[in-house]
Amino acid sequence: MQTLEISLFNLFLGILLVAIPAYILYHYKAGLTKALLVSTARMVVQLFLVGFYLKYLFDWNNLWVNIAWLLVMIAVCAFDLLRRVKLSIKVLFLPVYAVILFSVSVILVYFLKGVLNLENMFESRYFIPICGIMLGNVLSSNVIGLNAFYDRIVRDQQFYNYLLCNGATIEEATRPFIREALIKSFNPTIANMAVTGLIALPGILTGQIIGGSAPDVAIRYQIMIMVIIVSTSMIALLLNLTWSSRFTLDSLGRFCKNSGDCFAEKNNS
Predict the structure, then answer these.
(1) Residues 92, 97, 101, CA angle at the centre, nearest 5°?
(2) DSSP codes, 94-157
(3) Mean pLDDT, the chain, integer
(4) Segments making up each domain of the chain, as ranges
(5) What is the CA radius of gyration of the chain?
(6) Can you count the helices (H) and strands (E) in the chain?
């Protein structure tokens, strides 16, 4: 069955629905009306640009172009992650980049070669969309997790110092904070997984069905997408929490507001 096309005029009519949440935010003076409108405009422009260059990426289907695309997207992800968490980009960019690259690569190879059994795992049709889904969720989950970790350490420094003074190692003292970061980051995802199919149909599943895929095929892909999202994001967050703390906590376990100072102090000790 052929998918119904949405004309540009009808798309414009659909986008007008944003006026409803925009008015509600304006009425209650939430301060987010402008942000919502700007974000909507950016989303529309960015997705049209994505659609334009994805067409050429799919036509080229070139190994090196696809790898270059992934490396650039990981750089953007790492930069935006550090900017949102307000950690030193200069000090932590390379470690965070390496963590994301490792996390995505491990799960990607397992899924594309082990599960889908693709002869060419760099096939643009699979490689690019799957990477995009993984990176988007790595970014959102890691922003939540890292913010939760550092906010809690700053807020509960007395408890953290108490653990250190009572003989806990840095790893042992940071464990409660890592636990809370994992809970805050993945509790919504786990809750969403529990009701997927029962009260919620994810966008990927819906998109595949509307696009003409058989429901049973779309469901199998959706199951795997949810699994690889959780796995990749969890690996990346745990490694980022571990590695970033090496640069933001000095040799005595004290929190440094300037991660560059901790980095220099550890190198000189």
Answers:
(1) 155
(2) HHHHHHHHHHHHHHHHIIIIIIS--SSTT-HHHHHHHHHHHHHHHHHHHHHHHHHHHHHHHHTH
(3) 86
(4) 1-60, 63-268
(5) 21
(6) 11, 0
Quickly list DSSP for 172-206: HHHHHHHHHHHHHHHHHHHHHHHHBTTTB--HHHH
* SS3 label, residue 250: coil
> In this structure, is the dihedral angle defined by the CA atoms of residues 22, 27, 30 and 33, taken in order, positive or negative?
positive
Packing angle of the helix pair 124-155, 33-60 (nearest 10 deg):
140
- Tens of pLDDT, residues 99-140: 999 999 999 999 999 999 999 999 998 999 899 999 999 999
Residues facing 255 on adjacent strands: 249
Asked whether residue 245 carries a pLDDT value surpassing 70, the answer given is: yes
Reported pTM: 0.82
Task: With beta carbons less than 8 A apart as the criterion, state whether 266 and 251 touch.
Answer: yes
